[in-house]
Amino acid sequence: MPRLHIHPESHLVSRIGWLRAAVLGANDGIVSTASLIVGVAAAGSGPTEVLIAGLAGLVAGAMSMAAGEYVSVSSQSDTEQADLAREREELATQPEFEREELAQIYIGRGVSPDLAHQVADQLMAKDALGAHARDELGISEVTTARPIQAALTSAATFAVGAALPLLMVVLLPAAMLVTGVSVASLLFLAILGAFGARAGGANVLKATLRVTFWGALAMALTAGIGAIFGVVA
Q: I need a surface site. Which of 12, 23, 78, 108 has the fewest CB within 10 A?
């Protein structure tokens, strides 16, 4: 009989909570700040004005991301807690119905009726609410909402992303701001897209092209608006 070798498994879904907030925050930080810088620079503003506008965008954007993520994920958490409270009450008042409901879930997945009822009995004897949370509601430790983690991650990664185009403002001469910030920001976005794809196990090329396309579009639009208002002024 062949000997079984137990090997550790690492599933990427465990990263979904922080990875989504981190990639979204950094991407938004690069795109929004770079677009703001390009637009202000294209309007003919000097390096000092461009830098001040970029810094203001960094602070405002980081706070906005933190607040938005916290409110959004808190709403998800509230919904999860309400569902768990309802499930807890149903387990207390109609346990047989809940047992049958759990067994039917397993039967629907291909488990035989007798075995499904045995599994339901054993899982409910150990942790009835946990079993129903996972298999009926789809709530697990991996996917549960964490508002504070999402808010802090989004704010921090937004600030890091926004700092990259701001660094270009400090390093580049005024005549090269629009072109230099645009090219550098697209490079940063490409690196971010590749990193996010690798961390999440997705297609690297597809993710990189997607994020750079939307970044280029945003900067092109703001540069056009800045140039128009610069000419009018």
A: 108
Cα Rg of the chain, angstroms = 25
- Cβ-based neighbour number of residue 94 at 10 Å: 12
- Contact by Cβ (8 Å): 159, 64: no
Is 207 domain-assigned? yes
Structural domain for 43, as ranges: 13-232
pLDDT at 135: 82
What letter does residue 3 receive in the DSSP assignment?
P
What Cα–Cα distance (Å) separates residue 173 from each residue in 41, 192, 212? 12, 26, 24
Residue 104 lies in a domain: yes
Q: Tally Cβ neighbours within 10 Å of residue 64.
A: 15
- Round to whole Å and give the CA distance between 151 and 119: 39
Task: Say what percent of the chain tops pLDDT 70.
Answer: 85
Distances (CA, A) of 182 to 27, 67, 108, 179: 14, 28, 53, 5
- Cα distance from N-terminal residue to C-terminal residue, the chain: 84
Task: Give a yes or no: residue 191 inside a domain.
Answer: yes
CB 169 within 8 A of CB 39: no
Instruction: Encode pLDDT of 146-182 as tens digits.
Output: 788 888 888 899 999 999 999 999 998 988 888 999 9
Those residues whose C-beta lies under 8 Å from the C-beta of residue 40, and which sit 6 or more positions away, are: 49, 50, 53, 54, 226
Range 34-53 average pLDDT: 89
